[in-house]
Specification:
single chain; mainly alpha; two-stranded antiparallel ribbon
């Protein structure tokens, strides 16, 4: 037993744990890399066999070349913007030299949308719709989960509206937004239409999972709450919410994935600037590079969806009371 308390044993144990950790990380990295290599290989083999009306289906090399082209277009647009403001600054300096009291015009640069600016627009749209959906779904799900009567009232409505496609919501949302005219306060009309469509389609998983998580609080915890005679608010804050957090985040991750998928369709049909409109415009363009550009957009959409899911998972691990819970 003395060897267990020896300083050298503790150091060896720490090094062994570190070695196991890095071995596990290396194994996961190699498995991930092998999956990507298999995907690229299958993509290359399949693309060489597919002939479309616009030419041969692009492979990974063509997509990489288009990514570089999109980067060059973005940098060229940035240089045009810098040159615009430089000319405006020189013109204002000349006006001040001629007349120190002159009013200086300040004109904004109207940049042409680039691929990367449309990525930012899509992120803004999807996050706005997702946050609005969460603000509705989580409180409503908590109330439904706490009351069986409310569950009986709302469950038929949830089951009725949950499977409706964004393509069905979009005409109704467009007409309502046009009649109410929210565009002046919220942004452009197409942006409001896209946000409302994303919100309507993405709130259901969070609503259902929150209600289920709240309704499945262990009976022992409910008994503790009764014994301690906790108020409604303290019962919710101390007993219900910590128990329901895993289910709430499961719903949030599902809603975020749905919001991202709905966004692309909404941007295509509402013609709101973003990745969906970029894909639609390239499809309508029909040039020889359009397929490669669409492939780049599809990959970026997937990567952004994956990144958003990882961010939500990190937030779940930070908020969840059970830090050892395995969540992927």
């Amino acid at each position: 037993m003395k060897i267990l308390h020896h300083p050298g044993f503790n150091q060896w144990q720490s090094q062994f744990s570190s070695l196991l950790f890095w071995r596990k990380q290396l194994k996961q990295s190699l498995l991930t890399l092998s999956g990507l290599l298999v995907f690229v290989l299958c993509w290359q083999l399949a693309s060489s066999q597919i002939q479309t009306s616009l030419g041969q289906f692009p492979g990974p090399a063509q997509a990489a070349a288009q990514w570089s082209q999109l980067m060059d277009e973005y940098q060229a647009e940035q240089q045009r913007e810098d040159a615009f403001y430089q000319r405006q600054q020189e013109r204002n300096a000349a006006l001040l030299a001629a007349d120190p009291q002159a009013e200086l015009p300040s004109l904004p640069y109207r940049a042409r949308p680039t691929f990367f600016s449309q990525i930012l627009t899509s992120l803004q749209t999807v996050l706005t719709g997702f946050v609005l959906a969460s603000l509705i779904a989580i409180p409503l799900g908590i109330l439904i989960g706490l009351s069986s009567n409310l569950y009986q009232v709302f469950n038929p409505l949830i089951q009725l509206f949950k499977p409706i496609s964004p393509l069905a919501w979009l005409p109704l949302v467009t007409l309502i937004v046009s009649s109410v005219d929210l565009s002046s306060a919220w942004g452009s009309r197409s942006f409001v239409v896209s946000v409302c469509t994303v919100m309507l389609c993405s709130l259901w998983p969070t609503l259902l999972n929150t209600a289920v998580g709240v309704s499945q609080v262990p009976q022992d915890l409910l008994n503790v709450s009764k014994v301690l005679r906790l108020s409604w608010w303290r019962h919710l804050r101390i007993i219900v919410l910590p128990s329901a957090v895993p289910m709430i985040f499961t719903g949030l991750r599902l809603s975020l994935g749905i919001a991202w998928m709905v966004l692309i369709a909404a941007e295509m049909l509402a013609q709101n600037p973003g990745l969906g409109k970029f894909v639609w415009d390239e499809f309508q363009n029909g040039s020889s590079d359009s397929l490669s550009r669409i492939c780049v957009a599809v990959l970026v959409i997937g990567l952004l969806g994956f990144a958003l899911d990882r961010l939500m998972l990190m937030l779940q691990r930070k908020v969840n009371w059970d830090k050892t819970a395995v969540s992927r």
